[in-house]
Amino acid sequence: MYTAFSQLFQNDLTYDPQTMTWLVTGGAGYIGSHIVESFMHAGTPVAVFDDLSTGYRSFVPDDVPLVKGSITDPEAVGRALDEHAITGIVHLAGWKYAGVSVQRPLHFYGENVTGMQVLLAQASERGVNRFVLSSSASWYGTPDAEIVTEDAPPRPESPYGETKVISEWLLRDLARINPDLRQTSLRYFNVVGSGPPELADHSPHNLFPKVFRAVTAGEQPVVFGDGYPTPDGSCVRDYVHVVDLADAHVTAARLLDEGGNCAPAYNVGRGEGSSVFEVLDAIRSVTGIDFENDVQPRRPGDPARIVGSAELIARDMDWRAEFGLDAMASSAWAAWQRQLELYGGPPPDGGFGLIA
Ligand SMILES: NC(=O)c1ccc[n+]([C@@H]2O[C@H](COP(=O)([O-])OP(=O)(O)OC[C@H]3O[C@@H](n4cnc5c(N)ncnc54)[C@H](O)[C@@H]3O)[C@@H](O)[C@H]2O)c1
Predict the structure, then answer these.
(1) Ligand 1, closest atom to CA 72?
(2) 5 C-alpha vs ligand 1 centroid, how far in Å?
(3) Residues tagged active-site
(4) Which of 59, 99, 162, 258 has its CA 20 to 30 A from that of 350?
(5) Along the 356 residues of the chain, how does pLDDT read in single tens digits?
(6) Same domain, 154 and 256
(7) Pocket, ligand 1, Cβ cutoff 6 A
(8) What is the CATH number of the domain that holds 95?
(9) Cα of 94 to ligand 1 centre, how many Å?
(10) Within-domain flag for 155
(11) H helices within the chain, ranges in order?
């Protein structure tokens, strides 16, 4: 059980923080708020830029400055960089969900690609030369390999995935003409769990919140397909605890600050897969709710298995995921229960439920 947030983070992340302030765009969101906590734990000054479209004011600690504005607004972005003397940026602000992006490609390109372009332009003008991009395993689409490595070619299967590929390319192209720009992209796999239970994943499309919603309502969670060529027939994914993921950002930021070399992109996952049935077993054991699975036919386009190699980030940054499936399930459950206390029912979903 999670007791104190600071105990969760690896203790070797402290380094001289005096000369750098990192801006976390999207820092009021699920993952960004954990990255802010991780920076604070490392003793690095941090500020947040967020329009609160899917994030929450309460996710930003009172002693962390929040600049409210859209990443597509050059004036607001420039003001945030100036007001807080920013030296490095972790960029997460944007929209996720591949399925929604198919219905709303203009919106996703506007938020994710135009936003990236505006942010890079404002950062370049001011000589802000350290940049960590939040990318995604959606770069790979449906990988051929059992364990996909970073050199696999991009094969995004949705406008959302395309915006991540283009964002990585924008960063790469800028680095080609600016040798001072130190940057990398972190390709997240399936991010789950919570540090402090207040920082919950509200996403209505993610597996853990979906299962919690179902089982607390006395319903059976739906499993799409049990005939895949995997050990138990259900789909296999690479789940990573959000606290581990947050630490990976601070580790990357430290490497960039210290002048170390980063590869253009790193997978951030555990390098091993868990099946949907294994996740449901972990949830069953953590919640104590003895639910049945509602197995439905496969959904078109769901790959049997997506697992990323975690070797490159271990080699270059000495970063490895610490937390396993039980810690992910127990912390996610604690966060879900906290949301029930706070909201008296299932938590608000940041508006995605309206457009899914
Ligand atoms: N959750 C996952 O499993 C996962 C996996 C791979 C990649 N990612 C990426 O991680 C990032 C964060 O994801 P999350 O799960 O924390 O989502 P989230 O929706 O909780 O966070 C996104 C944050 O960005 C803010 N935002 C959105 N549009 C903005 C804009 N135009 N200007 C300023 N702020 C804006 C939102 O208010 C929110 O606080 C996203 O870029 C997402 O694509 C997430």
Answers:
(1) 31
(2) 21
(3) 160
(4) 162
(5) 223 344 454 434 444 555 689 999 999 999 999 999 999 999 999 999 999 999 999 999 999 999 999 999 999 999 999 999 999 999 999 999 888 999 999 999 999 999 999 999 999 999 999 999 999 999 999 998 999 999 999 999 999 999 999 999 999 999 999 999 999 999 999 999 999 999 999 887 888 989 998 998 899 999 999 999 999 999 999 999 999 999 999 999 999 999 888 999 999 999 999 999 999 999 999 999 999 999 999 988 788 999 999 999 999 999 999 999 999 999 999 999 998 898 877 666 544 433 32
(6) yes
(7) 26, 28-32, 50-55, 70-72, 92-96, 111, 115, 134, 136, 188, 190-191, 350
(8) 3.40.50.720
(9) 5
(10) yes
(11) 5-8, 30-42, 74-83, 98-103, 105-108, 115-125, 159-177, 207-216, 242-257, 276-287, 311-317, 325-343, 352-355
